[in-house]
DNA sequence: ATTTTTCATGAAAGCGTTTTCGATACTTGC
DNA sequence: GCAAGTATCGAAAACGCTTTCATGAAAAAT
């Protein structure tokens, strides 16, 4: 016995009303006589009627679904944002279609298009850079979008993040103040604005404030992985470098563990500050001093912003900067 | 100028064919003369036509979307599974609606229902227990479902996981063989079959094989968190217990760090084996010896199984058990 | 040359809702 | 009691696509 799906029409017939009325009670429209509402609700329960969201979406042109483009769910940083996004999304009755992009240009285009095809009401984009093609696609579509945990360097898209320049100035400044003359700057690709533009600027600014000269050789561009950190650690050993600012926690954990495994004492011989305050930073020993970010909130606020955009509400400020902190743990003097 | 969406009808008119023909070329149906196909494709490009997936879904009764119920994306274990799921899902052109359940019964029911309302073609469920209500809901619906990383203890639902009993026997066996007479069993709620039924059974079996007596006092039931581990560590210190099997990596990391911080030497004074082989296990120092699970594959295989179910293909074996391993790292003798 | 098959296409009926617009039935005010 | 307003409801037209069925044309078989 194939379960025949019960439609709004069945309910209407059974309750002796029109589809319009059923639709009204389902959607909480007030123009229904209480008695009728009751009758319809009874039938709904009796028949176990569940509105078909797809049909609803077609008729209303709203899918109550938003698309989330995430580099990799497996990355704790992005996963935390995602959690914030999801929580406020469900608060507002939206569902989330999540797509891993691997920060691959082609894949990003692809998922963006399928998201648009699915008629998502809005999109949250996570990633460290935006290609021109992608930006163009964004502006073409009528679908609102917000960047979470990153800024469009043209500042043309609503976004929420922390102040990467200032936080880096502070972190590097601390390293210098605690006695390091040679502070390495370790990050992912410098072609990503967050690194090449903001963090690097902060690094230089901190140097300048301390009257130190910028040295190209202290800049290490690598990828965001634990392994890359381990490898970097061997390069670092035996140099004059005695501290490092690192743009990613897993990378930092690699550097730390690599250093420690080689007998370098952290923080005595080498100080370290990382950037994302992911749980990783607290799991390793010694615990990583880190810039702290309201990860969950970045996601949550992004989603909240998106709901406003979708409602065409007036937005006071589309580029939101959330407060950050600097938590001194065990890889700096204190 | 509000961008007027271009529909299949516009393409049809412009190309001088019927909607049916356009639909055919869009869907790769072979019954179209190459010349016509070409003409239609040209118009599609010219007009930048993108099929509306919602309308498509309504007409075809397929959403090409699957629902994923995950306890918490922020948990590395589940995130890894999710990644596997997503990769093969997109391989098969499915999109994923992801819902965090927090393993909360009520929330699970809720998300299941919205998933069903959205007409997902299939569901992947992650979680450690299934309430009867949920099970009933599953069986009511015609939507195929598979459990990833857990088993329905009634074995009535397709699932993919590892053999929790055998892997635990092996892990606990190793601990005993290496000299521990008192091995603690530390896990999350015993009401979850994975703990109370399978792992515990494995634990007892290992004891029995070694001729050891089961001792209620060695069973520690807590929650899966780093903090819980830290707390547990103080309880453990000073007892005769000299080893522990732990059901979760973050929990294990907590125990390890807690022990170490109190001056207990691991593995010399206390040996530890954890269960999920999440990256956490390798980040901590000493690195946690762990049962290894093919996390990504569990997700991937689950999704593959689901595609078969959705295609109504013949399934040889709906309860899939993937191979596990035991990686001796630094929290056991070797 | 005629009959069959096969191919290519179009007309139109859904798919299950929402929503507009008008109609009817009640209230209310006077 | 009657006009005017208001609350309640229904008919039916979308929404943008897929899919069945019929049809005519072209190809193959006789």
From TrEMBL, chains A, B:
Transmembrane segments: none annotated. Gene3D superfamilies: 3.40.50.2300, lambda repressor-like DNA-binding domains. SMART domains: HTH_LACI (SM00354). CDD domains: HTH_LacI, PBP1_CcpA. Keywords: Activator, DNA-binding, Repressor, Transcription, Transcription regulation. GO terms for molecular function: DNA-binding transcription factor activity; transcription cis-regulatory region binding. PROSITE patterns: HTH_LACI_1, HTH_LACI_2. It comes from the Bacteria. It holds the Pfam family Peripla_BP_1. Residues 6-60 form the HTH lacI-type domain. Global transcriptional regulator of carbon catabolite repression (CCR) and carbon catabolite activation (CCA), which ensures optimal energy usage under diverse conditions. This is Catabolite control protein A.
